[in-house]
């Protein structure tokens, strides 16, 4: 059974209401007695709107990274291709950054959402790990051990659980993805004569 647009809108409204309620659990009770509580509701709703705008920008950037045209994105947004590109096409080149220690750095590019994890796995075997990312690239730093990378749906990931397993979040979430890396403790792979294999 598919969800109708009306049901989808209602489900989204309910979910957003639950989120606002979770941020300020006492708000509903205060609305019945404190007029100023409505100002708190306005503030939380405005913050939610700002965060939704950030998520929309990330979703559009991710769609472009997945190869979707501005025409198709515009259709989904109810605007022309040109309007979509003007509004969302100026996304910052570097979407996520992560402070790293000393070491050689390089950019892994071009990569897409379809091949970036394979490319990161290969780079990780040679001691490279992502420290920042953006459209079609990951910035890498080098160490003397292998790294593994993980990409999870931002809305499904348990950050605490991943961090408890040693995963380090890379930069900020890039909706719909969050990226993580962790060292494996294994020495980097080399070619037969002991020299490091290039990535």
Describe this structure in words.
- It is a single chain.
- By secondary structure, the protein is of the alpha+beta class.
- The chain has 2 domains: 5-88; 94-187, no CATH class.
- The chain is built from 7 helices and 7 strands, in the order H-H-H-H-H-E-E-H-E-E-E-H-E-E.
- The strands form 2 sheets. A 4-stranded antiparallel beta sheet has the order 1-3-4-2, with helices on one face. Strands 5-7-6 form a 3-stranded antiparallel beta sheet.
- Strand 6 and strand 7 (177-187) form a beta hairpin.
- Helix 4 (70-77) crosses helix 5 (81-88).
- It starts with a helix and ends in a 12-residue tail after the last strand.
- The relative contact order is 0.11.
- The model is unreliable at 92-101 (pLDDT under 50).
Q: Looking at the structure, what is the overall shape?
A: globular
The helix/strand order is HHHHHEEHEEEHEE
Any low-confidence stretches, pLDDT <50, length ≥5?
92-101
Helix content, binned percent: 40-55%
Overall tally of domains: 2
Please give the radius of gyration in angstroms: 21 Å
- The number of helices is 7
Estimated share of beta-strand residues = 15-25%
Strands of the largest sheet, in order across it?
1-3-4-2
Q: What would you call the structural class?
A: alpha+beta
What kind of sheet is the major sheet?
Answer: 4 strands, antiparallel
From the N-terminal CA to the C-terminal CA, the straight-line distance is 47 Å
Total number of β-strand segments?
7
Mean pLDDT: 83
Structure summary:
The chain is of the alpha+beta class and 199 residues long. It is built from seven helices and seven strands; from the N terminus they run αααααββαβββαββ. A hairpin with a 7-residue loop joins strand 6 and strand 7 (177-187).
């Amino acid at each position: 059974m598919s969800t109708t647009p009306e049901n989808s809108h209602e489900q989204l409204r309910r979910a957003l209401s639950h989120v606002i309620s979770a941020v300020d659990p006492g708000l509903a009770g205060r609305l019945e007695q404190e007029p100023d509580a409505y100002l708190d509701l306005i503030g939380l709703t405005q913050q939610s709107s700002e965060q939704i705008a950030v998520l929309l920008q990330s979703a559009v950037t991710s769609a472009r990274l997945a190869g979707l045209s501005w025409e198709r994105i515009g259709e989904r947004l109810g605007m022309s291709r040109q309007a979509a590109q003007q509004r969302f096409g100026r996304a910052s080149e570097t979407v996520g950054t992560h402070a790293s220690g000393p070491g050689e750095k390089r950019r892994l590019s071009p990569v897409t959402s379809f091949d970036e994890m394979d490319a990161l796995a290969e780079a990780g075997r040679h001691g490279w790990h992502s420290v920042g990312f953006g459209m079609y690239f990951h910035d890498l730093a080098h160490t003397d051990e292998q790294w593994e990378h993980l990409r999870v749906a931002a809305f499904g990931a348990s950050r605490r659980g991943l961090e408890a397993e040693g995963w380090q979040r890379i930069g900020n979430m890039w909706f719909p993805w969050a990226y993580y890396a962790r060292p494996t403790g294994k020495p980097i792979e080399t070619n037969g004569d002991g020299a490091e294999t290039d990535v």
